[in-house]
């Protein structure tokens, strides 16, 4: 994975640090990870006042997580270690609301690796500062978003339109903490 | 304003009160042919004068008028609505209401309002309503979906289940209870336009 210099610059320049590294993984690599996560199995969450989605907590991808942690360390200039990792799958009609997110007081770094097989228009991850969107992660298979989760930052995964029949959004969500 | 003339359906309040209490998953009533046909053009003309803008959050995407009316016509429409309905709804629902707010909404393809209860501590919303007025392109989707849910001792919703769908049929009024279990959503509009007037009644 080659990190564009602009990612480091963008991170340093932003008042609320957040960047997207495009084409962080290839489509073929994403497909292999997606297949392994699928095999481990998803569980559907359906408390609809908070979210509708599938989640897999069995992300057994140590090499990938090591690489992603290294990329995040390079982008942020921080020494980081893996705290949590899970995968989300959203299909048409799915979403995660802000009220399903949680506050982080210790400024961890969150990664969103887009493992989706194809672009799904409008399927984004929104990071909000005091309720207002300051960083929108677009649907871009293979891309990696790196976001500092300050105590005022919350996140939601936007509604996936039912007009996109057969849409499948797969995201690897990783939380890294300072060491 | 002659738009909000209640028809014969409203005369038997005892029957309506029984239907309200029995409705599942939580109290609600549906009134078809709510506005007399001859008054619909006047209603549409008043709403057409009110400017709409796009609103978007994690829970919704739609076009709507501002929370407070910008035109005198729409303000009068809102006040007349409250005046016509507050008293009968108070008797039917056993919730004493006096005033109502009102916004016009335009849900187009891709617009939605995800599940929520409307209940907010200290805001005073007692009853919610939606009136669907005629659409030049009747919508596909856009149903009002009511959920059956249970809450734990802290008031957190712990189970949800779809229980009722109300089609956004032209000239239909829906009134429903507001509580910590009045979980509902507007399903995504897949095509066409779903125009409505909507808001809450307050004590």
Features:
heterodimer; A: 179 residues; alpha+beta; Jelly Rolls; 8-stranded antiparallel β-sheet; 3 helices; 21% helix; B: 203 residues; 12-stranded antiparallel β-sheet; two-stranded antiparallel ribbon; globular
- The coarse silhouette of chain B is globular
CATH topology of chain B: Jelly Rolls
Highest CATH level, the class of chain A: Mainly Beta
Low-confidence stretches of chain A: none
Query: H/E order of the elements of chain B?
Result: HEHEEHEEEEEEEEEEE
Gap from first CA to last CA of chain B: 23 Å
Number of helices of chain B: 3
The most extensive interface, with participating residues per chain, is: A-B, 16 and 21 residues
C-alpha termini separation of chain A: 23 Å
Number of domains of chain B: 1
Describe the structure concisely for a colleague:
Chain A is α+β, with helices and mostly antiparallel strands.
Describe this protein's structure:
- The complex is a heterodimer of chains A (179) and B (203).
- With 179 residues, chain A is of the alpha+beta class.
- Helix content of chain A is 21%, strand content 36%.
- Chain A has one domain: Sandwich (Jelly Rolls).
- In chain A, the strands form two sheets. In chain A, strands 1, 2, 3, 4, 5, 6, 9 and 11 form an eight-stranded antiparallel sheet that branches. A three-stranded antiparallel sheet of chain A has the order 8-7-10, with no helix packed on it.
- The mean pLDDT of chain A is 94.
- Chain B is of the alpha+beta class.
- Helix content of chain B is 20%, strand content 36%.
- The mean pLDDT of chain B is 96.
- Classes of the chains: A alpha+beta (179), B alpha+beta (203).
- The interface between A and B is medium-sized, with 16 and 21 residues.
């Amino acid at each position: 994975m080659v990190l564009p210099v602009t990612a480091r610059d963008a991170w340093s320049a932003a008042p609320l640090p957040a960047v997207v590294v495009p084409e962080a993984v290839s489509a073929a690599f994403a497909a292999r990870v997606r297949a392994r996560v699928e095999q481990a199995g998803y569980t559907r969450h359906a408390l609809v006042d908070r979210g509708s989605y599938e989640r897999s907590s069995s992300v057994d991808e140590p090499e990938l997580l090591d690489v992603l942690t290294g990329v995040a360390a390079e982008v942020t200039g921080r020494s980081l270690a893996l705290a949590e990792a899970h995968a989300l799958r959203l299909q048409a009609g799915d979403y995660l609301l802000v009220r399903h997110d949680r506050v982080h007081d210790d400024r961890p770094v969150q990664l969103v690796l887009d493992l989706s097989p194809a672009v799904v228009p409008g399927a984004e991850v929104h990071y909000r500062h005091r309720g207002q969107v300051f960083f929108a992660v677009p649907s871009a298979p293979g891309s990696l978003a790196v976001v500092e989760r300050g105590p005022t930052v919350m996140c939601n995964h936007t509604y996936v339109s039912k007009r996109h029949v057969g849409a499948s959004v797969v995201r690897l969500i990783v939380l890294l903490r300072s060491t | 304003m002659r738009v909000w003339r209640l028809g014969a359906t409203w005369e038997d309040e005892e029957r309506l009160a029984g239907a309200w209490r029995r409705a599942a998953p939580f109290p609600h009533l549906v009134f078809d042919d709510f506005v007399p046909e001859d008054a619909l053009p006047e209603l549409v003309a008043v709403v057409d004068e009110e400017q709409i803008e796009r609103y978007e959050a994690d829970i919704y995407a739609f076009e709507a008028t501002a929370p407070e009316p910008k035109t005198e016509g729409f303000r009068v429409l809102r006040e007349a609505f409250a005046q016509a309905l507050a008293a009968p709804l108070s008797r039917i629902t056993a919730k004493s209401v006096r005033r109502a707010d009102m916004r016009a909404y335009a849900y187009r393809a891709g617009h939605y309002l995800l599940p929520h209860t409307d209940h907010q501590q200290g805001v005073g919303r007692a009853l919610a309503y939606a009136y669907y007025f005629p659409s030049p392109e009747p919508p596909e989707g856009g149903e009002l979906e009511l959920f059956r849910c249970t809450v734990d001792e802290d008031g957190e919703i712990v189970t949800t289940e779809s229980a009722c769908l109300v089609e956004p049929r032209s000239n239909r009024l829906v009134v429903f209870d507001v509580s910590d279990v009045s979980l509902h959503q507007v399903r995504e509009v897949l095509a066409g336009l779903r125009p409505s007037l909507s808001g809450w009644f307050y004590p």
